[in-house]
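Appendix C reproduces, verbatim, an entry submitted by the partner laboratory led by Prof. M.T., so that reviewers can inspect both the input and the predicted structure.
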Amino acid sequence: MKKIIVCILFFLTMIISVSADTISKYDDVSSPEYVMLSFENALNMKDFQRAWNYWKPQPEAGFEKWKKGYADTKHIDIYYKYKDSDAGAGNRWVTYTVKMFAEDNKGKKHLYEGYYTLHTSAPELYENGEWPGWRIEKGEFRKIY
């Protein structure tokens, strides 16, 4: 009986720790992969200003219109796969093909497909640790369902 209780407590502890990790703030622009994770984290935490700040240049529609696009979104999961990279004159770009699964506030599931291109300037071009890191430069998606 004690073994069963210990197993149940261990299982519940694991669930609680995983849940806590999924709502912890993650903010890292040191690699394109970390930016993608940070962007997803910001959207899921409803920290739209932080998510917006991962863009450079920021979307033409403006912050309020961009934010409204996520108004009915409860949760997203971004799955990305390396597609292409390019470098030149102190600049670096990485493009990922992306599948974004979203759940709206009514529990309905949606799938979007597209890409994100991320950009940075070479860190060695910056003095005194002023390197801004990687940023999302552009993205394009279409709704599948």
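DSSP finds four helices and four strands in the chain. Additional entries are available on request from the coordinating office.
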